[in-house]
Design a protein that fits this description.
The complex is a heterodimer of chains A (85) and B (124). Chain A is an all-alpha fold. Helix content of chain A is 87%, strand content 0%. In chain A, helix 1 runs antiparallel to helix 2 and helix 2 runs antiparallel to helix 3. Chain A is flat. Chain B is mainly α. Chain B is elongated and about 60 Å long. The chains are: A mainly alpha (85), B mainly alpha (124). At the A-B interface, helix 1, helix 2 and helix 3 of A face helix 1, helix 2 and helix 3 of B.
Chain lengths: 85, 124
């Protein structure tokens, strides 16, 4: 079971690396915001995997709060790009 | 000795992590902001939900209280990810970023003309 978690975390790390590359080289602000949204979702799954690896139930709360804050951040940046803020 | 919960949960975790990897790859690979949104939102939604459900099922044999909070996270992801991608797509459309149409399909000619006309009106 623990090796499956390690393989899954390596796959998540490579996906996050691709999203970070797009975050750095993205031509416009919209591309960077889409990369940030993807990073947030992958990071929530990674934090849940970490809580399963360390076997600590309290780490699930960190994933929940990170998901809420990332969602609010993406919404605020999207409204700003739209010109509504 | 693995229980049946750990086997089902491990399969779900592997499938979900492959979907998350493909979402990151699509973010890097796709040519347009709308294509990136398509690849980066749907694949990561399914992948994150599958990974979280897999962790919950794998812990179900020892402690069932994991499944309650993980279900809350799954429900939150299922409604927050489409909302954020919709807000981003609307913002990009109102900033006049039109999709790049590289298809040679003759059915796409009408959309290509609309896109180019709006670009010319914007540049005037």
């Amino acid at each position: 079971m623990i090796y499956i978690l390690y393989i899954a975390m390596v796959l998540l790390l490579v996906g996050m690396l691709f999203a970070v590359v797009r975050f750095v080289i993205g031509p416009t602000a919209g591309d960077r915001t889409v990369a940030l949204d993807t990073l947030t979702t992958i990071m929530v799954a990674g934090l849940v995997l970490l809580s399963a690896v360390f076997d600590r139930f309290i780490y699930v709360d960190v994933a929940l709060v990170y998901g809420v804050l990332g969602f609010i951040g993406v919404i605020v940046i999207a409204r700003y790009l739209e010109g509504a803020l | 000795m693995n229980s049946i919960y750990e086997i089902i949960g491990g399969i779900l975790i592997l499938v979900g992590s492959i979907f998350l990897f493909l979402g990151g790859l699509g973010i890097l690979r796709m040519p347009d902001v709308y294509n990136r949104m398509q690849a980066g939102t749907k694949a990561t939604t399914l992948g994150a939900m599958s990974v979280i459900l897999g962790v919950g099922i794998a812990q179900l044999g020892t402690d069932w209280t994991w499944m309650v909070k993980l279900t809350i996270i799954i429900i939150f992801i299922a409604y927050s990810n489409p909302i954020s991608s919709h807000a981003l797509a609307r913002a990009m459309y109102r900033r006049k970023r039109y999709p790049i149409i590289t298809s040679t399909d003759p059915n796409m000619d009408a959309y290509r003309e609309v896109s180019e006309n709006e670009k010319m009106e914007e540049s005037k």
